[in-house]
Amino acid sequence: MIESLLLKLRKRDVVSPDEEQALRDLITEVEDIPARKTVVRRGEPLNRSILLIEGLMCRQKDLRSGDRQITALHVAGDFLDLHGFTLKQLDHDVMALSPCRVAYARHDLLTRLTEVHPHLTRLLWFSTNLDAAMHREWELSLGQRTGAARAAHLFCEVYTRLQIVGRLDDEAYALPMNQSELGECLGLTVVHTNRVLRELRELGFVQFTRGRVVIEDIEGLKAYAEFDPTYLYLDSTPR
Amino acid sequence: MIESLLLKLRKRDVVSPDEEQALRDLITEVEDIPARKTVVRRGEPLNRSILLIEGLMCRQKDLRSGDRQITALHVAGDFLDLHGFTLKQLDHDVMALSPCRVAYARHDLLTRLTEVHPHLTRLLWFSTNLDAAMHREWELSLGQRTGAARAAHLFCEVYTRLQIVGRLDDEAYALPMNQSELGECLGLTVVHTNRVLRELRELGFVQFTRGRVVIEDIEGLKAYAEFDPTYLYLDSTPR
DNA sequence: CGTTATATTGAAGTGCGTCAAAAAGTGTGG
DNA sequence: CCACACTTTTTGACGCACTTCAATATAACG
Q1: Which intervals hold domain HTH crp-type (chains A, B) (predicted)?
Q2: Do residue B71 and residue A139 have CB atoms under 8 angstroms apart?
Q3: What percent of chain A has pLDDT over 70?
Q4: Which among B122, B128, B143 has CB closest to A69?
Q5: Is A238 contained in some domain?
Q6: Are residues B176 and B122 part of one domain?
Q7: Boundary (domain end) residue, out of A137, A156, A181
Q8: pLDDT tens digits, residue range A99-129?
Q9: Hey, which of A69, A74, A184, B62 has its CA 20 to 30 A from A112?
């Protein structure tokens, strides 16, 4: 159940059998979530954090005009709102993009964990810092990259993250969202998102059709996006 | 020396005298940094984190074209790279925008702190999560707000953050950067930044001249920017 | 099979970038 | 105090990336 989480963490540091057990003990109830359901609403008090076991979720903020920005994507093995453990409420919504399976980690157990497992605590802390690193890369994309490069970069990032947790299907993967939602990740309208996707397709880099990404030329795509995975911290270092 | 940090933390939770002392013991050497100096370079191994005592610093990422994005601003009381404690190296540079005074917190002492002070650890964890919340709000700005609203929002955010640490000078404050650097925060060119500033001035909201922000109508500015400080977590809650 | 969501294309408009130059401010040395 | 060089701000003209509005095509679904 926490296998993807372990894959993710062990890519970055050693997790002892003891710590693995502590994580297993942390996770209680499992639940299935339908697509499009909001699982955490901004401002609501939190007493547990959610681990994504299967599916695709996102964090989003919106303006009064209704314009939305998706600020993060989450794949299997990610905590959706571990930051909520110290923040106690979120500044944004968390929504399922596909049908998902999640598990819950109660905050009182997490508090206990911080008192008993300092190294594991630092690892969980690391994992929220990793989210922040991705936010920064998205800021760079939104502020400086062209629409096409932004899309290309996103495809590279998700490719890399899914690879870690074994969700790549050869050179393709599931990205269950429509072009409108993809546009909300990229800060583009649906119409322009569609044009940008055509460009990437015509360049022979990648195809995105009905929630599925097929990579045709990963090296070309990475070069085009200036994708440098440093910000994903893929080295195993004592944290 | 850590007074601004204490103001910042105590705005969000209780810091016991014991914990205050632990923080004081954490901070060793103090140093003065000249403007424009890069204090942390991406990729370099870190064994300490930096607390900003006085001045303005930023985090920045760039593309090969030379286009830069400033992903965060830091004021007195902020840790510049506390995330570096668990990341062990940064994915971006940290640079002084003005002459600054900083103090250092060694990572071995921080590790020790996590083993002895779980609640304080959670508070420091919180503070990195707060940085992430600001990153998300900037993503919303960069992705969805117009240039003028983005600038207005930034002025509101810094106004609020400086207020907490007592650096407001009536309805004005120091923001020691030029229009080019402001543009790099906003994802705009200098030229357009200049036009956006004129617009905000003509609307009677705010003036930005030679590194100084003079707020003329804070309520108007907040409304214009749709500034909602929820994401700054200004309530005192047990973390 | 009809209904609704999603994708695609076209045409026209706009926010912001680019290029270029002038104006204003700042710092330094004489 | 001025002279000079340099940085920063400001403005104008023009171009482009992206948006908006609108219509059609295609896929998904009960």
Answers
A1: 145-219
A2: yes
A3: 100
A4: B143
A5: no
A6: no
A7: A137
A8: 999 999 999 999 999 999 999 999 999 999 9
A9: A74
Compute the distance between CA of residue B62 and CA of residue A209 in angstroms, rounded to an integer. Answer: 31
**Does residue A239 lie within any of the structural domains?**
no
Could you tell me the residue range of the domain that residue A201 belongs to? 147-232
Same domain, A107 and A158: no
Q: Which residue has the tokens 């893929």?
A: A234
Residues within 8 A of B (CB atoms), A 14-53 only:
42-43
Please identify, among B89, B118, B137, the residue that sits at the C-terminal boundary of a domain.
B137
A88 lies within 8 A of chain B by CB: yes
The rounded distance, in Å, linking the Cα atoms of A88 and A26 is: 18
Q: What is the pLDDT of residues A200-228, one digit of tens each?
A: 999 999 999 999 999 999 999 999 999 99
Give every CB contact of residue B21 below 8 A, 6+ residues apart in sequence. Answer: none
Whether residues A131 and A39 share a domain: the answer is: yes
CATH number of the CATH domain containing A200:
2.60.120.10
* C-alpha distance from A139 to closest chain B C-alpha (Å): 5
- What pLDDT score was predicted for residue A105? 97
Helix (DSSP H) and strand (DSSP E) numbers for chain B: 9, 10
Are residue A153 and residue A127 in the same domain, yes or no? no
Residue B237 lies in a domain: no
Are A203 and A97 contained in the same domain? no
Q: How many domains does chain B have?
A: 2
pLDDT number for residue A15: 97
Beta strands in B34-183 (DSSP E): 38-40, 48-54, 57-62, 68-74, 93-96, 100-106, 172-174
- A10 assigned to some structural domain: yes
pLDDT digits (tens, 9 = 90+) for B217-232: 999 999 999 999 999 9
Residues 98-137 of A with CB under 8 A from B: 111, 114-115, 118, 121-123, 125-126, 128-133, 135-137
pLDDT in tens, B148-187: 999 999 999 999 999 999 999 999 999 999 999 999 999 9
B13: contact with A, CB 8 A cutoff: no
Alpha-carbon span A123 to A222, nearest angstrom: 29
- B224/B106 same-domain check: no
